[in-house]
């Protein structure tokens, strides 16, 4: 039995279980008790998108997705995140048996992991890389808190998890993984957590789009393309009539809104195109792409109106960028009823 240590506890979030519990309770208490005419958790909302930065940055935003998440029927929880620690093509599975948190350990669903591994479509995460990776870990304490609220203080009642890293892939490759995972999504006893931050703006991310001459240009584009406008044509409204035009943080919001609206269409290809056209640095674009492809595959069998598509309920940024030397990361939370 091997346990993945909570390597980011004590830095990205509190390693004291009481302090951490109080912090998560505080985040969740700030979220209204109802959204979109539904009390929380939203009945049948068993798929969420939530950010994965340090809790002081993204925790308040993530709480909106977690408070909407319906775990009442959950017998296993898939956790999909991007790889920040090594280049990955396709999807990779954990080799650990448990994931540690300051509260206790969540058990890995070894039967489901084995079943997925036997398809031959998944690689294994290198253990050291998996320990260093934060995109999955940052969701485990939040998940524990919501499982505790749903099932009480007996961890033996908590469903096991299926951690999956989702790496680089073409539109068709994402669709193939969506088709492969669709039977699991059809199972009403599965819940799904998709880990992603949105726009990473700043020189350290090599992405600094700004408003210029009616369009969006990137400070960090190659010299030969310095004046090339990104392939988007947003409606700036009154923002464009100001002497300086839209501020950088307003440009960031426009780019993120294009991505979020594409996600809400439920059309996987639309999201893929928006990311291609804007080059928005959505770090979880591939996990989002795979879950959208999975939802699309399930929807082909017919779904009730209002189901199978994400609804974004919160959007925040780490700072409001005004100067080229500033930086920020965007956070967004969404849920889907299946």
From TrEMBL:
Pfam families per record: Memo
UniProt-listed InterPro entries: MEMO1_fam
PANTHER family on file: PROTEIN MEMO1 (PTHR11060:SF0)
Recorded family membership: Belongs to the MEMO1 family.
Name recorded for this polypeptide: MEMO1 family
Organism: Podospora fimiseda
